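Input for the complex:
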Amino acid sequence: NAGVTQTPKFQVLKTGQSMTLQCAQDMNHEYMSWYRQDPGMGLRLIHYSVGAGITDQGEVPNGYNVSRSTTEDFPLRLLSAAPSQTSVYFCASGRGTGVQPQHFGDGTRLSIL
Amino acid sequence: QKEVEQDPGPLSVPEGAIVSLNCTYSNSAFQYFMWYRQYSRKGPELLMYTYSSGNKEDGRFTAQVDKSSKYISLFIRDSQPSDSATYLCAMSAFQAGGTSYGKLTFGQGTILTVHP
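Predicted:
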């Protein structure tokens, strides 16, 4: 059981480039989400999904795009990378009912030059 | 003002000490309270979660929630060097349909070092 798998683990981009951060879970969880973690800011919610075909914005959605075509996968797209998007990105998943803990991946460390 | 405030520390204690970590919050809609532990270069892992005011114990860890004061705490007894990590409090509001949907609001995290 792999849990939540994020790829790549590290990435360096130039300003204006695009890329997709991958997230996959094998626990059949309905709920998936993306957070970014910056020094002194804790984790902040970017986008989330309550099931295949359903997504919504979190606290800091600007500059990011998501889609959820399957239960297992929830990719995060940066359309035109900016230095302000330098961060560590975490994907999480959990069951969508009741009080359910969220399981996190080990993150993607992204640097935008 | 942030919805959740957590003293970032860093906090350094000797092995065997009792550690107290705290968060305050301003949003009275928060109903679910969690503590995550994050080791360096790893994702957060859930330590404890609770729904109601009061205490919840799990081994050396005790989570305490006081909704009237909007204050939560995590106590670690007999702290060990392996407890050295960043501790994050997280909260979630009750959503329509009876689910929290896992939309978590985090504190800034407290860096804890337990030295032998």
